[in-house]
Amino acid sequence: MNEAARKPLGRFVPLVVFAALVAFFVVGLVWNQSHDARFVPSPLIDKPAPDFRLPRLERPTEFVTKADLLGKPYLINVFASWCFACGDEHPVLMAYRDKFGIPLVGYDYKDAPQDARAWLQRHGDPYHEVITDQSGDTAIDFGVYGAPETYLIDAQGIIRYKHIGPLTPEVIAKELEPKIRALEQGT
Amino acid sequence: MRHSWLRWIVAAILMICAIAPAVAIDPLPFQNEAQRDRFQHLTGELRCMVCQDESLLASNADFAKQLRRQIFDMMQQGKSDKEIKDWLVARYSTFILYDPPLAPSTIALWFGTPAILLIGAGVVVVLLRRRTRPSNAIAEEPGDDW
User: Considering its fold, how many domains does chain B have in total?
Assistant: First the structure.
């Protein structure tokens, strides 16, 4: 007499195990497709933004520091003239620059200043201020690994939100604006 | 005519491919062999964030070049491997490490496989024990003798 005949339910054990494995497999597949593996959550969220001292794009002899920007929330948008996705994002920034309600600081990443100036002249300048990081060393302190990236920094200089990849109207409406409003209400 | 064109293009592409790996190794002025080995071992354990299936050692991306330079500089300053890794993790999260650290979120990763193996072994032992009894009975049957 074999096992299955003695215990009728026993023959379903392999099926249940197999179904469990299939479930794991499907969950893994769906999860893998539902998010982009390139977008790694930053460990810097809710931590102080790194100290920086970077020259202005328009007046390279003048420097902007983290301390200069304290006191009110602002956005930092990492861009570069060589970055294709930044071109996709650019019209969105043009449309939203005055709707954010807080300053939008351009962070020109590993770019030649003259290229960045030409790029902004050609497409329009959505930024209230542009700082340049030609070496990209400060960007490493921010955890930048690709442009475009956008940071929301509060009045105390704490990073409250980061978006990797181009900002879209959906991302702004669903994620960024609520975060900005929350800062304005002092929460 | 066309073929000679094609041949040149293919030759050019092959040449570029042959050069690429050589270019990937930047000429960092190491003090000695040991330091270079340490550098290669360390960067081999780190993920290039922009090209995630490559290590910082192997990648030719700008990002990897820059981080290699920074890691090299930190080594010159006498920083330990752990200090360098902590510095990177603070900026890029533990994702930059190919070896995930033991943390509450990685317990399943570290112990899941051994646990499944143990359960499987347990099942096999139970099944074998059950099976030995009936097979003894069969062996005692005279008709089985051939």
Answer: 2
Give A2 to chain B, closest Cα distance, Å: 9
Q: Does B66 sit within 8 Å of A140, measured CB to CB?
A: yes
Structure ipTM over 0.85, yes or no: no
B66 Cβ under 8 Å from any chain A Cβ? yes
Tens digits of per-residue pLDDT, B91-115?
Answer: 998 889 988 888 888 888 889 999 9
**R_g (Cα) of chain B, nearest Å:** 28
Is the domain covering A53-184 a CATH 3.40.30.10 domain? Answer: yes
Domain of residue B35 covers 2-101
Q: Which two tokens stand for residue A179?
A: 């975060």
Judge if B89 and B109 occupy the same domain. no
> How many C-beta atoms lie closer than 10 Å to residue A52's C-beta?
21
> Tokens 């890794």 appear where?
B85
Which of B50, B66, B130 faces A136 most closely, judged by CB atoms? Answer: B66
